[in-house]
């Protein structure tokens, strides 16, 4: 396996690859379009689509990696918690993938980009064998995942006319069989299934096959490969979205290769190498993980899969000892909280921690990244060993990360940590922080496969002339459209090819982007669940006690809260009946009044089918209505959300403080 090494680059400061005070270029013209400084043709409005001419599809990139690695280890897994990792090497991976793809053709599937293959499984070697097997015959991968729910999975299978789904285990097979559309003909299972499940499938006209049997069939038939073209689709990635059915984001081979090559280009000397090992635990159904893994395969690195239980991730990390990994705020928040809890009870521990943070932050500011200092050994060793002890690179994405947590993780791990911003529609990356930039709470400059501009959002008082507006993206990573949804595609991609993200950003003076709001008032909680505040408000407003309600939350919090203006007549009447005196202001501060309104809102929420994370966990009662006059409503009496959030900032912060 790869030799052990520290994640420091001696004690030399990182060489800044660009001027950190001017991290992006502005194209000439009135739109103030910003581009990457890492690609010399960016200023001509050109975008990177690959690192070299003969590696332009995900079929090509895997083969390039096999050569780079000299048939090194490729896919790693372990049979049970106490066993070591075992490895499939590149050539064997290629052969097995080709056999599996050949087996799919032998089962009657057409080797072309109109053939869609479903996969419903946790990360494992078979996921990659399926993906690469499909690419050997120009087929398209359509991932399914648990959080979509059975109805959405059935909708996807039907909409994409999927005949074959590769399914991990008995439970997932049954979830698909519960709602299986007529087009579903075959389930190919990775693990054993019960005879009762096989009979159930048979009754529904669905044939059950074993993964290994399809490989054997393909090896016997040895169908000639039909490699994909650059412009062919490689995947349709369905986003769970917020309302209605999921949308199928169509991504071509060029889209994905462009995205991962732009990130590799920007990482420069810190890019993955053939002796690197990546830990795979984020879902392969999402593009952040897919791009990271395919980037590893392009460069001949090894990918080890976690055992499937997130509670055992640290054990898997210690066994695998990865040098790199993608991560999400949820994981990093958990590490931060654990350390804070450990030091909270001891003055000495707290003092040592603060001294260590101070020393390491001072090094960060000078561009020194290492994990072998005195403070690493004394204070941070436990955190580092919990992640295997060899991490040198981490890419963070999917939701915003609080600045104090990012700085803590940078100090504690002594690894290079870059934070990206992206969307499935842009195949993951849009911007990425530059190595050596220690300042948190921004998402870096545009990557080399795209350019970014901000456009006015007048209803929210964001204007591009002030360096604020909706983030719009154009480039080789921008998707081909939503599958069978032309209307939704045209709502998102304008006639000039700009993808409108729905996120509101602002340019910082150094040319980096900071995400500050969401145009559609949709936000994610820290665990990644989407919240549509207006939908929740429309349910709570049904309560007889509620005259107005403003639901709020943010991506750094795990729950939502609300500001409620009570219905003065109803509340006064209830208070009178219950012997509670006072004006509306006095009643708003009364705990029994608050409990009454909160309970009624929650019961309306339950009746309307709100999920637990969509229910408010605290409310603040406010006696004065929101109005046009006090600047909290628009002339059409819609809530001015940014203004409401700013106006009630102290009360909102107070609610969250009490909740924690």
Automatic annotation (TrEMBL):
CDD domains: LC-FACS_euk. Pfam families: AMP-binding. The keyword Metal-binding does not apply. GO terms for cellular component: endoplasmic reticulum; membrane. Residues 73-483 form the AMP-dependent synthetase/ligase domain. GO terms for molecular function: arachidonate-CoA ligase activity; ATP binding. It comes from the Eukaryota. Keywords: ATP-binding, Fatty acid metabolism, Ligase, Lipid metabolism, Nucleotide-binding. InterPro entries: AMP-binding_CS, AMP-dep_synth/lig_dom, ANL_N_sf, LC-FACS_euk. Its EC number is 6.2.1.3. SUPFAM superfamilies: Acetyl-CoA synthetase-like (SSF56801). It catalyses: 12-hydroxy-(5Z,8Z,10E,14Z)-eicosatetraenoate + ATP + CoA = 12-hydroxy-(5Z,8Z,10E,14Z)-eicosatetraenoyl-CoA + AMP + diphosphate; 5-hydroxy-(6E,8Z,11Z,14Z)-eicosatetraenoate + ATP + CoA = 5-hydroxy-(6E,8Z,11Z,14Z)-eicosatetraenoyl-CoA + AMP + diphosphate; 15-hydroxy-(5Z,8Z,11Z,13E)-eicosatetraenoate + ATP + CoA = 15-hydroxy-(5Z,8Z,11Z,13E)-eicosatetraenoyl-CoA + AMP + diphosphate; hexadecanoate + ATP + CoA = hexadecanoyl-CoA + AMP + diphosphate. It is an enzyme of class 6 (ligase). Catalyzes the conversion of long-chain fatty acids to their active form acyl-CoAs for both synthesis of cellular lipids, and degradation via beta-oxidation. Belongs to the ATP-dependent AMP-binding enzyme family. This is Long-chain-fatty-acid--CoA ligase.
